[in-house]
Amino acid sequence: MKYVFYDFETTGISPAFDQPLQFAAIVTDESLNELERIDIRCQVAPHILPSPFALHVTNIKPEQTTNKNLQTPFEFAQTLQAFTEAWAPACWLGFNTIAFDEPMMRQMFYQNLQPNIFATQINGNTRLDVMKMVFATYAEANSTLAWPTNNKGKLSFKLDQLAPHNGFAHENAHDALADVEATIYIFNKIKEGAPELFGKLLQAADKTFIASSLRGFVPMEVTLRFGAHPPKTYQGCFCGASKGNPNSIGFVDFELMGANEFSIASPIAITQAIEASPKKIRNLAINKSETFRVIENPTEEMLHTCDQVKAATEVQGFVAEAFTARFSQEEPAELEVEDQIYSNFTSQQDKNLLEHFQTATWPERATIINKLSDRRLQQLGKRLVAFYAPELLTDQQRIDFDNFLSQRWLTPGDQAPWMTAEEVWIALEKLGSDIEVSEWREFYQARIDAILN
């Protein structure tokens, strides 16, 4: 099995309304011998105002985001999709990738009409998250790593502090390639310093194994971190799954809920157990690379609890109903197209059209867009034509596109999930002497004026 360690630097923190500006990855074999590395950048999409805070943290100057020598986001997405295909099957991993980088990648593929938005989960690919492995190491093999504190004296798990604290020269923190190298360094420290735990953590990449173990009512443990609290390992077993999402499961805590209490629980008692603090039943996901491990030497009490939970099929049903009710709130009637990424699956017919879309000319692409059955993809496709082939637009379509940009950028900041002009000016004020304010203001003003004049 190959590893693909990867990282993005982005225009902001929203996968739906920001975008990657840099992608870096290092491919290795199981022994961490390097096979290939990639470090690519792209322009900012025409409808995005990059966050000044994000640019400052990543040491990207605003004018670099519009460098015409860089790939467009569409070309960048094509390159990235081809890269995922070239190295499959592999285990894709990074630092906090499950919560941040992977959603960014999916949105990049989705908004740029790539055929496979779940590229890291098909063609034999699997996923891990090194940050979650670090949490498990803290809880179960603490001496493997040295643990830094921040300027407030609080324990810090940030890569830019963890890596140098453990001997890595992390001089270019928040550069994607440097962060990948730092991640590999920490991954290898765990591999060499806690080999037994490391072997168990690798199993988290095998969703089939984890799911079958859980649904077999085997005693298991998982390390989690909530808020600023230190990571903690919880021991328990599967106790039901959401009706609408089999990946969303209940995990009953052995320490807080015994076999007898579970087996006679009412629907109200189950709801209370899920909502309690601390939680007697936790809602966890088996497709988020949580660090589930089989407990090797379970106690008789653990085994008894698992047997009782397994036998209490009616109570498992209560768990399923509680989760389903909890997450069955209706979606807003008017979701932005970016937020509709999981609203539907792309049909095979549309996927075939998207495959053809990749090599077509822009006039041909405009025709393909009209053949798509998925309205989301039609809308995103028409946006791409406006971005990269504006000569194909009618006068009215040009007006509509300018109105779209005006609506995006001039919306009051507290009413939009994307970066607005109002928020840009506030951010520049806050950054103050940390940046060349006049140059940054000139860049943003010119970008905004271009749609107003």
Automatic annotation (TrEMBL):
PROSITE patterns membership: EXOI_C (PS51785)
Keyword field contains Secreted: no
Segments forming domain ExoI C-terminal: 333-453
EC number(s) reported in the record: 3.1.11.1
Gene Ontology BP, a term: DNA repair
Keyword Metal-binding: no
SMART domains, per database record: EXOIII
MF GO annotations: nucleic acid binding; single-stranded DNA 3'-5' DNA exonuclease activity
InterPro entries registered for this protein in UniProt: Exonuc_1_C, Ribonucl_H, RNaseH-like_sf, RNaseH_sf
Superkingdom of origin: Bacteria
Keyword set, alphabetical order: Exonuclease, Hydrolase, Nuclease
Cited PANTHER family: DNA POLYMERASE III SUBUNIT EPSILON (PTHR30231), PROTEIN NEN2 (PTHR30231:SF4)
Protein name: Exodeoxyribonuclease I
